[in-house]
Amino acid sequence: MIFGIEGITPHIFISLLIYASVSSGTPGPNNMMLLASGMNFGFRRTIPHMLGISIGFSVVLLALGLGLGEVFRLYPITYITLKYAGAAYMVYLSWQIANAKPPQTEGTKGAKHKSLKPMSFIGAAAFQWVNPKAMIMAATYFSAYVPLGDSWQKLAFVIGLYTPVNLICISLWAILGVKLADYLGVNRNRKIFNYTMAGLLLLSLAPILWE
Q: What tens digit of pLDDT does each residue of 101-113 get?
């Protein structure tokens, strides 16, 4: 037992850390968007996006831990609806990234200029509810480590552990985007990068829709 919580052994603790790190750090919709945001807007303007992902995903975890997963099991259509609504939204986000212009500068403020904007905290948090990978990650996390009926202390512990690990891992993608900005200052290169990110975001849908 760790911290006096039943069911949290050193072995389980290490497994939780590994799962949280791998699932948060591997490529997926959130990380592809953070990479593009870091490159286009810099780290500081991407912070609300990162916080929205981590806190929004924690709310999803809490909801599943309190029984939402059982609703999905009893009424599969609710999960299927969320999954395909999320897929449609991700297609829309891919189109936005691919067709975005560089952020506005002082000389372009008065002109018609379609510019990609950083995702807000609320937008990123809400996206977790229609992000198919996030829902699958959350369901797997709880089915493996916190079965329905476990204590609220264990539920709070695993969410409290996952959230900072997730924030650290996803921030690395934003930092990578910032570093890439030094090499992609040319408009043509930036456009190639945005098209690539849009394509990868679409590709990340394939295993989710086929599962």
A: 665 544 444 434 4
